[in-house]
Amino acid sequence: MTERRAILSGSAFEERIGYARAVVHGDRVYVSGTTGFDYATMTISDDVVEQAVQCLRNIEAALADAGCTFADVVRVRYLLPAREDFEPCWPVLRKAFANVLPAATMLQCGLADPRMKIEIEVDAHLPG
């Protein structure tokens, strides 16, 4: 039987909605859509680039808990309500993924909270 392990970040959303920040299933890691909330303070910046930076911090922590890094990411999805907010985030995203070159998709869609300007989810493979 393939091992399955849930990774929790402590976000209030996980408890309220009923999901895990990430799930490790065998050698795969699935990180849920992650927003720019600082989960320790449950605050979020008004700036989309600052939100992208925080998204990546939150994702990096989940990947570390799973036993991997950005280098192990094979797929990334960007979700934004305003497509014009995507390009200002490119330098931050490039810093995380330029050496990895995962498959990527950007979707324009509504997010759960009007303060959220970007949500990022990734899939990764555990090293080894």
Task: Write up this protein.
It contains 3 helices and 6 strands. The chain has helices spanning 12-18, 48-66, 86-97; strands at 4-7, 22-25, 28-35, 73-80, 103-108, 119-125. It is globular and about 45 Å long. The mean pLDDT is 95. Helices cover 30% and strands 29% of the residues. It has a 6-stranded mixed beta sheet, covered by helices on one side. With 128 residues, the chain is an alpha+beta fold. Helix 2 packs parallel to helix 3 (86-97).
Beta-strand content estimate: 25-35%
Biggest sheet strand order reads: 1-2-3-6-4-5
Described by the principal axes of the CA atoms, the overall outline is: globular
Number of helices: 3
Helix content range of the residues, please?
Answer: 25-40%
Topology pattern, helix = H, strand = E: EHEEHEHEE
Helix vs. strand class: alpha+beta
Largest sheet: 6 strands, mixed
Report, as a whole number of angstroms, the end-to-end distance.
19 Å
